[in-house]
Structures are given as C-alpha cells and as structure tokens.
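Name: Universal stress protein UspA
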Amino acid sequence: MVVGVDGSESATEAVRWAAGEAVRRETSLRLVHAYFSTGDDYPNLEVTAAEVREALRETAVKRLRLAKLAAWAVAPSLEIETEVREGDPRPVLIDESKHALVLAVGTRGLDGVGRLVLGSSALAVAVHGRCPLVVVRGARSRSGPVVVGVDSWQASAFAVRFAFEEAARLGTSVTVLRTWSDLNLADSVTVQDAERQALETKVATVADWFPGVPFDCLVVRGRPAKVLKEYGERAVLIVVGTRGRNAFTGLLFGSVSQDLTGRAPCPVAVVRSDVVLLGAAGTAESLLLEGDGA
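Structure predicted for Universal stress protein UspA:
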C-alpha cells in the first residue's frame, strides 16, 4: 500500500484509510512525499537554491513523520516505510504505482510548492498508473456494500473484481450498477430486465471466485455520477473503471470525474481496464469474456 502525502488533512485521511487497508491485506504501508524545486536562487531574498531545497526537504520529513503517527494510531503494529522524493508528484506517484497493490491519495492538496492536486497528480495516476487508485473521501467506518459502476465488460471487469476483493475483506456485499438514459424505449421495463439479467451473467463469472460475497445487479435510469453518488450514501466504497465507451465513459475526466471524486460520500477506487490486479486469483482471460454486452 502506498499513500501520497502532502501535509493536508485530506492526505492524512488517506493515510488512515490505507493503514486499515494494509492490515486487512496483511501488507506494509509506504508513505511518500514528493517536492519540486526550481533550482533557482532568490538573490532578492538572499536565499540560495540549495537552501530552498533543504527547507522543502525538512518540511517533507516533518509531514511524513506526522503521517506515520496518524497511521500508527489506526494500526500500532503496522510496518511503515517513508520516503522523500524530489520531483514532480505526478511522475513520482506513477513510478510508485508500479510496485504498489493500491495507491491512495486525498481529495484536496495544499496550495504552494509540492502540493498534491486531484486534478493533476491523482488523475495522472488514474490514466498512467499501474495499480488501482483510491481517492479517499468520507468515513470508512460506515457500514454498507461496495458499489461498482459498470459500462462495457471490457472496461469494467477488473473494477468488478476489485470490488469483490474489497467486499470479501470487509465482510460486506457488492452492488453492481449500470445506468441508462434512453427515454424513448417503448418497453423500458422489458429492456431493463434483459440488461439486468445479462449483467448478472457477466458478474457471476467473478462472483464464482468469492462464494461468500453476496451481490446484486441494478440497471438504473440516470446520469452515472449522480446515480453513483446516491448509492454511495449507503456504501463503504465506490469502484469505477476508466475505459468505457458508453455510460461511464470519461467518468474520471472532466466535470463528471471532479464531481464524483470531489463530492462522493465515501472513498472512490479507480481501476484501469488494462492493469492486472496484484494477487488476484484467476487470469485476465477469465474476466475478459468474449463480448461486452453488459
């Protein structure tokens, strides 16, 4: 488990969430702070580039120390590694994702140098990262299902898989949501029922790996972000994929993505369709079944 730390309260919440997750996964926690220095001297302020760099590093060390204490408050025996890295947070976190089970960030960064901004760093990881990204918002202590938004199966298979893994660890259920907005269908009830049955068939291929996790599939009329937020009010986690072609296309990009991750009542996990989950049972081929009708 890796957490991007920037000193904000939001990042501290991400650290607390990741500490509990690390315990459930029986793994260690890695806390990373990235800072960027221009390398310029400031003669008017009588400050050299080396002094600026050292000040930024000292601040980073202090923030990591506080983050480590926050993690230990959740899990006193947790093994925690910290590292200060110089550079743009975006490539730093993408590099960290190559060896992480999950990478977690907060929803808001601090103003100024070294900030971790949802619109840049987190979305960069969502697009280019090599592991699932969790944007932590809201309380994890709540009860409820893991809610996963589904578009095409090719785009959503690994998101569904991740949702079932999380539900198994938390001892809860999975609610699989698919949205539609066609208001001109003559027999919407029949079509909706057919869509739900097709979705259940697809999801069952994943559920077979988790016989102890109950699930239900819902086909709901409405806008994806709005529907997910509504169901997220009763959820412990929202999970979405990143490469759909229909209802959930672009969910993590532009206004819809900002609306969901910035306002969701619980953490939001982003799972890329081309990233194989570390430690997942079964193969990629077993999830990506022929066709993507659900």
